[in-house]
Amino acid sequence: MHAPIDDTTWKQYLSSRLITEGPTEAKKRENVMSLLKSLLIPFSEQYANKQRLRAVPVCQILPFGSYSLGGHLANADIDVVCLAPSTVVERTAVPIIKCSIDSIMTDISFVSLKQPSIPPNIKLLDDGYLEGLDSVCLASMDVDLQHKQVFQQAMQAIKHWATQRCMYGKPMGYLNASPESLTTHGLLQAFFCMWAEWPWPVPVMVTDGIPDKRGQTIPYNPSQETAVMPIITPCYPVSFSAPFTTLSTLKVMTKEFKRASLILDSYFDQSESMLDKLFSEFDIIRPYKHFLKVVVSCETQKSHETWIRKMAVAIPRFVTMLEQNYKSIYEKNALRAGEDSDVAREQSFATALSPGVLLMTWYIIGLEVKIPKNEDRVLDICSEVDDFIRTIDEKRNSKDIDMTVSVVSMKR
């Protein structure tokens, strides 16, 4: 077994390859936070004047997610939540603003608390603040605590590893980087080993029960759980951290966890060789021979951005449909007999007949087809594709006339 890589080497490796940001970029993020906080005062004053209030309501802006943990990567978004009295920010259908500030993408969520003013040292772990909040505001109350540098480096390493191995993104059926003080190397070894051997669907819980909003706990009932990968959050409001995971994405993740665990336990002459192997970019074309290409095309930027968000949820559902498909014509006939038997790009094409811009995104789904010998080698997934297209069409509204979705088979 190779000697564990020390924390300094991990830090130097991540920094030298621009995986983590330097002091200049870190200062830019601090300036963005300072700017957002400075805007709260005139915002509150204008509201108070408009409503003829005697006192100006106090709002707060707090970072959350990987940035608040210090585990973000270079060029990552900043996630912040604006806490305001319910009289200031009323409930909206989608309480989030996406914007770019000094070239840094920033997502601002809003939560309306039933408080006259929001104190600067508010304790968000106090469940009393959650009384009377609707599900939309509860979803925005995802504020984390600060942790040590070892945790931050491990989190950055895991995020970069998941991105390189094409497994980063909870809506697409994988995970966001939220690892569970040891050294960076030891923490990563424990992380990969645990997830590689976890006996799913046994739930992951760090508490004895599920906490409710009154501070009491209720027992976990596995019969009510349908998640493929049930990872249960430890505080109210309880949610499942991997709700979109499918059997296929779980299989891919388990294989990659085992690979990473094996690499960290193997011998390498140089630490850099081990890390290069761990973070080598995954080639999605190589393991598969058959593919489905889901193409989303829109004529307007707004439509494109809207449907990219919707497709992040729709694609895992499509994969679930494919997982439930019979494997061959033989199995199809057996089922009928009642017998028992698994990239965005922008294209400009201004011409006289078709002026304008077409915004396109491709989603590639690798198909692992296993058909026993002596059986018909035709895989019929027409009904699953039709159901998927029908599901997308049901999500359309009058503003989506420029959007089309198509599914195309591919072969390497």
TrEMBL record:
Cellular localization per UniProt: Nucleus
CC cofactor: Mn(2+); Mg(2+)
Domain Poly(A) polymerase nucleotidyltransferase: start-end pairs: 87-141
EC number: 2.7.7.19
Keyword annotations: ATP-binding, Magnesium, Metal-binding, mRNA processing, Nucleotide-binding, Nucleus, Transferase
Matches recorded under SUPFAM superfamilies: Nucleotidyltransferase, PAP/Archaeal CCA-adding enzyme, C-terminal domain, PAP/OAS1 substrate-binding domain
Primary location group: nucleus
Pfam families to which the protein is assigned, alphabetical: PAP_central (PF04928), PAP_NTPase (PF20750)
Keyword Kinase: no
Poly(A) polymerase central domain sequence ranges: 150-280
Entries under Gene3D superfamilies matching the protein: 1.10.1410.10, Beta Polymerase, domain 2, Poly(A) polymerase predicted RNA binding domain
Annotated InterPro entries: NT_sf, NuclTrfase_I-like_C, PolA_pol_cen_dom, PolA_pol_NTPase
Similarity field: Belongs to the poly(A) polymerase family.
PANTHER family listed in its UniProt record: POLY A POLYMERASE, POLYNUCLEOTIDE ADENYLYLTRANSFERASE
Protein name: polynucleotide adenylyltransferase
Source species taxonomy: Eukaryota, Fungi, Fungi incertae sedis, Mucoromycota, Mucoromycotina
